[in-house]
Amino acid sequence: MKTLLYVDDSPDDRFLLQRACRTGRVCFLVKTLAGGIEAIRYLRGESEFANRAEHPLPDLIFLDLKMFDMDGFQVLSWIRANPATRAIAVAMFSGSFITKDIIKGYAEGADYFIPKPPDLDTLVEIVHAADKGLAADPKNCEALERFAIRPESM
């Protein structure tokens, strides 16, 4: 089963994404984590995340930009520097529309920079797009690309 890992320090945002996945009846497993340090521990398979049957490496990561312990850029840099995680598709999933953040996200290796939507309906559309991407190619998904912001389009 394909896995989406959602890393965000906001419990409300994690709850909304899980709700959108239930509402949208997606085919993937969703795992949520509360911060960057926890995400790296998960990706390394450390301690409580050692059981890969229970905590599989994700096929796609939605990564919040602004978190309390480590920002999304730091986590993304770690993901891209690590041979075991380098090929995982990563979408920066942020409330930031700051051009320099978007440019830096792509420069650091993000596959997508997707703004957090203002409503549940749009979030359901985004998780449906992720479902399509996970069924095909999460790094090159037209359905997810529809929601992504690119610096050249700003």
Structure, described:
The chain is an alpha/beta fold and 154 residues long. It has one domain (3-153): Rossmann fold, CATH 3.40.50. It is 40% helix and 16% strand. It has six helices and five strands, in the order βαβαβαβαβαα. The chain has helices at residues 11-24, 36-44, 72-81, 99-107, 120-135, 142-145, and strands at residues 3-7, 29-33, 60-63, 89-94, 112-115. It has a five-stranded parallel beta sheet, sandwiched between helices. It is globular, with a radius of gyration of 14 Å.
Distance between the termini: 36 Å
Q: Any idea of the CATH topology?
A: Rossmann fold
User: How are helices and strands ordered from N to C?
Assistant: EHEHEHEHEHH
Q: Tell me which oligomeric state these chains represent.
A: single chain
Count the E strands.
5
| Count of DSSP-assigned helices | 6
Strand order of the largest sheet: 2-1-3-4-5
Number of domains: 1
Please state the overall shape, judged from the principal axes of the Cα atoms. globular
Key traits:
alpha/beta; Rossmann fold; globular
Can you lay out the helices and strands and say which pair or pack?
Elements: E1 3-7, H1 11-24, E2 29-33, H2 36-44, E3 60-63, H3 72-81, E4 89-94, H4 99-107, E5 112-115, H5 120-135, H6 142-145
Parallel strand pairs: 1-2, 1-3, 3-4, 4-5
In summary, what is this structure?
With 154 residues, this protein is an alpha/beta fold.
